Amino acid sequence: MHTLLNIFHLGIKEIRSLGRDTLMLVIIGFMFSAQIYVIANGMPQSLNKAPIAIVDEDRSPLSERIANAFYPPHFLAPDIIDQYVADPGMDRGLYTFVLDIPPNFQRDLLAGRQPAIQLNVDATRIAQAFIGNNYVQTIVNGEVSTFVQGHRTLTTLPVELETRALFNPNLNTVWFGAVIELVNSITALSIVLTGAALIREREHGTIEHLLVMPLTPFEIMLSKVWSMGLIVVLVAAASLMIVVQGLLEVPLQGSPPLFVVSMTLYLFTTTSLGILLGTVARSMPQLGLLLLVILLPLEMLSGGLTPRESMPELVQNIMLAAPTTHFVSLAQAILYRGADFSIVWPQFLALIAIGGVFFVLALTRFRKTISSMD
């Protein structure tokens, strides 16, 4: 009972200390409100206002017809440019696509030849380049076929494919982006809060005060874990209800309480990781650099931004040791597909195992760090 009281009172101290940190409170509020809203709405749903230029060396009715086929909202109105302007324009980032129609294109096409049209793509604009490449090919092929046949024809296939999109019938990327950004905010904030709490103790000299008190490293560490974890649980649950479900109108199919329970297990892991990083870093700038190395792989390789199946098998196996992989799977299964505990219990066990390992490592490192201060 004495140990529990120590952990409780130390945790209250951490919460009060955070309450006096105005900048951190502003960051927490921003991460779980405006950041989620802006990023969810900013994810590209389709090609939108892509800049395109056309080098028309043919000057024929067909080339004019192709140029007129590109219009908003998918593309900006095409710029008709000279071939010597194409490369400098792409170098300056003025155009994502440059379509070069060669001389005598219409004549060669009507003569039964197979003339080629050159399409230059600025691949640094990844989303537009990947999606727009198919758009451009489809538009050009459609206009050429219509011109040659003299009329538009609808191809009747022998088999009709009826597509039904489950869980997100309108393929609305806002639904996907909101939950994934909430997961990313939970990950980042839980690690930052616990790591910063430990470094703040060292920088302010209060860690020495704790060492002279009848407290164990276990009590000090667990107090930071539960207090910072509680803050993240509260703000994340509020964000889920107010921002995700309210402002963004994302329908939640599953049980929010079950999601909160899984988030609590996940926070046990990430807060322990934050303590571990706090013992390695000696200052806040060092902690920030460590976060860059840790957070980027956790967010990009966990299956939230891209499916894990599209990654190399070695990366998939390595990321099974990361808690984010299992939490993303939990969040998607519960909130999107309405899964209950009978379906997601393997992810729960994985989080418990990974969390236990991280906690032991962090506690061992924390004890070693404190013993060096004695």
Plain-language structure description:
The structure is a single chain. The chain is mostly helical and 374 residues long. The protein has two domains: 2-43 and 172-373, no CATH class; 52-149, 3-Layer(aba) Sandwich (abc type-2 transporter like fold). 67% of the residues lie in helices and 4% in strands. It is built from 15 helices and four strands. The chain has helices spanning 2-19, 22-31, 34-42, 61-68, 83-91, 105-110, 126-149, 173-204, 206-211, 217-247, 256-280, 284-300, 313-319, 323-336, 341-373; strands spanning 52-56, 79-80, 97-101, 118-121. Strands 2-1-3-4 form a four-stranded mixed beta sheet, with helices on both faces. Strand 1 (52-56), helix 4 (61-68) and strand 2 form a beta-alpha-beta unit. Helix 8 packs across helix 14 (323-336), helix 11 runs antiparallel to helix 14 (323-336) and helix 14 (323-336) packs antiparallel against helix 15. The longest helix has 33 residues, at 341-373. It is elongated and about 95 Å long. It starts with a helix and ends with a helix. The model has no long low-confidence stretch (mean pLDDT 85).
